[in-house]
Specification:
- This protein has 14 helices and 17 strands.
- It is of the alpha/beta class and about 425 residues long.
- It folds into 2 domains: about 150 residues, Aspartate Aminotransferase, domain 1, CATH 3.90.1150.10; about 260 residues, Type I PLP-dependent aspartate aminotransferase-like (Major domain) (Aspartate Aminotransferase, domain 2, 3-Layer(aba) Sandwich), CATH 3.40.640.10.
- The strands form 5 sheets. The chain has a 7-stranded mixed β-sheet with strand order 4-10-9-8-7-5-6, sandwiched between helices. The chain has a 4-stranded antiparallel β-sheet with strand order 13-14-17-16, covered by helices on one side. It has a two-stranded antiparallel sheet with strand order 1-2.
- Helix 4 packs parallel to helix 5 and helix 12 crosses helix 14.
- The radius of gyration is 22 Å and the shape is globular.
- About 45% of the residues are buried.
- It binds ligand 7TS.
- Ligand 7TS binds next to helix 4.
Length: about 425
Amino acid sequence: MIIKEDIKRMFQIKNIRKDFPILEREVNGKQLVYLDNAATSQTPKQVIDVIVDYYTSYNSNIHRGVHALSQEATDKYEEARTKIQNHFNAKKKHEIIFTSGTTHGINIISSGFSQILKEKDEVIVSALEHHSNIVPWQMLCEKTGAILKVIPMNQEGELVVDQYDKLLSEKTKLVFVNHVSNALGTINPIKTIIDKAHHVGAAVLVDGAQACPHIKPDVQELGVDFYVASAHKIYGPTGVGVLYGKEKWLNMLPPYQGGGEMIATVSFEKTTYATLPHKFEAGTPNICGGIAFGAAIDYINNIGFKTIENYEIELLQYATKELLEIEGLTIYGEAKNKTSVISFNLKGIHPYDVGTLLDKMGIAVRTGHHCAQPIMDYYKIPGTIRASFSFYNTKEEIDALVSGVKKAKLMLS
Ligand code: 7TS
């Protein structure tokens, strides 16, 4: 029986879906069912309009021209920085650095710490990381002689926090962990991880790439030293992201790249660097992207994180229940606290084959190791099929996924 609440919700989802023109399209002659939101989310027309407006009306370089267009672009770009500051609740606007994305943000910090760390210093990573939050730190360890330690995971796909306690000591200088695992959807206990690290005097970087579409992080409440994210996973464009850093750290760390915009004075004898945030923003940035990022933040806040959370949990629970009814299907990652991501496999069938057949049915999922090979190694599998849901997905789309997986199973067994 459809109750009043369901009707209200169906109406809202219909309206929300109208904001995303791409959801109307067909793929391989079938209505698109987009379930690869953890790779990149779709962009609402409110954000697309901002991008079109930028190139139609005021495209120009920022922070340098006295002319009207340049001033307009500068104002809009800096307004976006303020929106991002407010969203993450950063104390100061100059603690918000525009980057090209999460990977860029992590590299700014890992490269900076290569001038601070010494041989035998220790740094801690978690077993649940994306390669972006592993490889830059391994490069840092190679350069400095620092030692990389790993917080292990368990079968449910959760971090074993007791083991983390044993890794921490006064030798620990840095801890880097994701807020949410991209491969499994696990929400990590980052507040506990941060507090424990601070207890031994270590700084913490949180990779928020997968958390930000679902959770509004409060960097002051978390007390985190660095928090990074990408706009394209939060309904904004690709090629832009954010690095939040505590002022004292950003002042202490060296610039990442040299060039225009990041200097105060230049002569052949000596160059002095600009103050924050420009010190970390060499060259012409992704101006349109930054402004559109601000619009995406507005969009997601208009929907509201409580609404998003409630609805996405409903989708997650429904999909989990329906998928588990398929014989031979295993879900990887059953953390108590997780976002709307389901990684799964069919017994004896390669995930890539299932993904390819689903694509023929118009259903977009990601298959493979999801740039998280250590997690796949833990489960001793080559990869998974990953379905990741957004607030614009529907139960009907989950039904299409479930029926598609059943068909794929029949064809491949
Ligand atoms: N960290 C996490 C947790 C991620 O999920 C990703 C991208 C990154 C870092 C890198 O972000 P980028 O914007 O700099 O590329 N994750 C995925 C994914 O799960 N499928 O495609 C990209």
